[in-house]
Amino acid sequence: MAVCNPKPPLMAIFVFFLFLLHKTNSESFSFKFDIFEPDTFPIALVGDAFSYGGALLLTRIDQGGDSVVIRKNSVGRAVYLTPIHLWDRFTGNVADFTTEFTFVVDSGGPLLHGDGLAFFISPVQTALNIPLNSSGGYLGLFSPENAFNPSPYQVVAVELDSFGNAWDPIPEPLAAHVGIDINSLRSVNTTGWPINSVPRRSLGKARVVYDSKTKELSVTVSYGSKGGTTVSVSQIIDLKIVLPEWVRIGFSAATGDLVESHGIASWSFTSFLRQPESK
């Protein structure tokens, strides 16, 4: 007569724990906002940023009777409060991530307008702090003192810059561009941004992807469906060297003497941090 052994085989236990170990040795994180309700958590609105009509407006718009006035020298940020695990100090592995957002930049009519918005990644401790005197071409990211001094300030940003300043690749007012910034307002790589050639109030879509294997940060900005206007730019960046292990992500925008509105209509983010596979 056969006797049933209630104890599971040792090999089965071993395989089971290997499976659990493998499952916990990868870390993923994601969120998606198709619309922004008032007081959307966990997004913090800093400075002049506010939510209105299901969107995030990063710079101030004042209602004056029947007219709308875009405020000069306005600065605002929208920051996702939950820290993102960008890389692992024990393994040295860096996360892959993809973020997409739709946006509207409206000049209000004038040919000359400014100054732009940016998606940024920065240390947890500084993400909510808007630097002093960071309106205008500083995009709410930098103060004049640290804008071109990369040593004390940590930030990686994708800027949609609607006004060409003296430090930009083409220092002309209509030279709008998409740029990648590393600890400095002087972009390491840029491409043209067709904000002045698309219809007013056009909905743009930006996609930012980081591949940890190639260390490439790639950016695509498009308007319209297939066949519409699309521009792209990329840069090799070792984020482990540039940024701390834990970061926050968000948007920043600014106006100066020239103005425009900066609206974020939707936003999604996904990251995946690989860990060594179990042997």
TrEMBL record:
<dbReference type="GO" id="GO:0030246">
    <property type="term" value="F:carbohydrate binding"/>
</dbReference>
<dbReference type="InterPro" id="IPR013320">
    <property type="entry name" value="ConA-like_dom_sf"/>
</dbReference>
<dbReference type="InterPro" id="IPR001220">
    <property type="entry name" value="Legume_lectin_dom"/>
</dbReference>
<comment type="similarity">
    <text>Belongs to the leguminous lectin family.</text>
</comment>
<dbReference type="InterPro" id="IPR016363">
    <property type="entry name" value="L-lectin"/>
</dbReference>
<dbReference type="InterPro" id="IPR000985">
    <property type="entry name" value="Lectin_LegA_CS"/>
</dbReference>
<keyword id="KW-0732">Signal</keyword>
<dbReference type="InterPro" id="IPR050258">
    <property type="entry name" value="Leguminous_Lectin"/>
</dbReference>
<protein>
    <recommendedName>
        <fullName>Legume lectin domain-containing protein</fullName>
    </recommendedName>
</protein>
<dbReference type="InterPro" id="IPR019825">
    <property type="entry name" value="Lectin_legB_Mn/Ca_BS"/>
</dbReference>
<keyword id="KW-0430">Lectin</keyword>
<feature type="domain" description="Legume lectin">
    <location>
        <begin position="29"/>
        <end position="272"/>
    </location>
</feature>
<feature type="signal peptide">
    <location>
        <begin position="1"/>
        <end position="26"/>
    </location>
</feature>
<dbReference type="Pfam" id="PF00139">
    <property type="entry name" value="Lectin_legB"/>
</dbReference>
